[in-house]
Amino acid sequence: MSFTSDMPRHKNKTYATFLAAIFGSIGGHRFYLRGMSDALGWAHIAALPLALMMVLLWPDQPVFFLALPVVVSALLALLEAIVIGLTPDEKWDVHYNPGSGRSTKSGWPLAALLVLTFGAGAIGLITVIARSFDLLFTGGAYG
After folding, report:
1. Which pTM was predicted?
2. Hey, how many other C-beta atoms are within 10 angstroms of the C-beta on 20?
């Protein structure tokens, strides 16, 4: 008697959205959805050592430029969280849950998570734009 199931594991859309919003900058959602062989998940992780390498190579540069790989990774992860959360349940099941025997039924927790993700993404994007203009036009005179 085998204790493992032959049916594929059902992937929860709300949990995938949560992973993208919270742990997306290190590829948590990509590894949950596609496994450890996902190249874009590893690209998210590669942003951390890339930023560290930039700090070591150019220590006199503004921190904003040195942290740019991590910032871009985080903003892309928030965008992916929104795309994951807004995917219709039927399309989600066809793509990620074929043959799992269960269907996805999104509810209010996903809606609340999407509102918070939109807010965090907007704040992050406005911050990046404002800091970029500050560095471009004033040379970082305002911080």
Report:
1. 0.84
2. 28
Do the Cβ atoms of 120 and 75 come closer than 8 Å?
no
Q: Which H/E stretch holds residue 115?
A: helix 108-138
Contacts of 69 (CB under 8 A, 6+ apart): 46, 47, 48, 50, 51, 54
Q: Cβ of 130: how many Cβ atoms within 10 Å? A: 11
Where residue 110 falls (left for φ over 0; alpha for ψ -120 to 50; beta otherwise) is alpha
Helices H / strands E in the chain, number of each: 7, 0
Mean pLDDT score, 103-123: 94
Please give the backbone phi and psi of residue 8, each rounded to the nearest 5 degrees, phi first.
Answer: -65, 150
83-84-85-89 Cα dihedral, nearest 10 degrees: 120
Note whether 33 and 11 are within 8 A (CB): yes
- Give pLDDT tens digits for 33-59: 999 999 999 999 999 999 999 989 988
